[in-house]
Amino acid sequence: MNTTSLVAVDGKMTESHRRELEAAVNLLENPHFAARLAEYAGQPLNAIVEHLPGAFNQRLRGTVRAAIFRCLEIAIESLDDDVSVSGPDWLNKVMIGVAGGVGGFFGMVALPIELPLTTALMLRAIVEIARAEGEDLGLMETRLACLEVFALGVRGPHDKLNVDYYAARLVLTRLTADVAALLSERGAVNASTPVIAKLVGEIVGRFGLVVSDMSAASFVPILGAVGGATLNVIFADHFHRVAHGHFTVRRLERIYGAESIRARYQQSRRAQPRGGLLRRLPF
Predict the structure, then answer these.
(1) H-only helix segments in 133-257
(2) What is the pLDDT of residues 72-118, one digit of tens each?
(3) Which pTM does this prediction carry?
(4) Which residues contact 46 (CB under 8 A, 6 or more apart)?
(5) Residues 102, 221: contact at Cβ < 8 Å?
(6) How far is residue 156's CA from residue 282's CA, in Å, rounded to a whole number?
(7) Is 257 left (phi over 0), alpha (psi -120 to 50) or beta?
(8) Cβ pair 257, 13 in contact under 8 A
(9) SS3 readout for 34-56
């Protein structure tokens, strides 16, 4: 269906689109990821996070960086608008759950293998969500917008990253625009290139907070392989929700204009109650 046909003649937002925007605001401003993990684990994650050894935190950051860089490579080189890159949403979550189950069986030692695989699978699902919302995956800007999702699902009342969706997106969009310009000039990605390193670092700084929550929950006794699978399904569902919100907003911007949707988004955001997340590691 052509969504532009749903716009009222006088330019006002249709009731259907208004509800979609409100749903997107709720998804993007109230992710509740840490709270969901804490409920699942049966105890606060704060105490676990605070007792993680420094060496583990450093290794975790390196693993997250490797995973995000791999996703950047996939976004640049492997996403083709003519090829369906993922199966149904439920199948993607099953695959991610299986990866988490294997990781849970082998413990944290498997994280450097499991996390890049999990994030790559999630990226494929994010791409399908973008496609469903009318995005042109032939554009590098769209492909990098898929990668932005990993940095948009983090909120917290006490940490320095407690910014709204548009504030976080503004920073990311500037970086992805620089990366897209670089790629059009050089046609290749190098982790040591300053603009690439800055984009990856920005995403790692946010995405790593969510990974630290998931890693902390994995230290809860008797979770094992079943727990690892469950954690990964929660993990995947979280970013699928963020992707739905992100690309809904972008679709509505294409219909009504970016400034109009941003103003309506902020109005809806102020009207909605804010949910707080648990404090996280200072990545």
Answers:
(1) 140-152, 165-186, 194-217, 224-256
(2) 888 888 665 444 444 555 555 555 555 555 444 445 556 677 788 88
(3) 0.78
(4) 278, 279
(5) no
(6) 12
(7) left
(8) no
(9) HHHHHHHHCCCHHHHHHCCCHHH
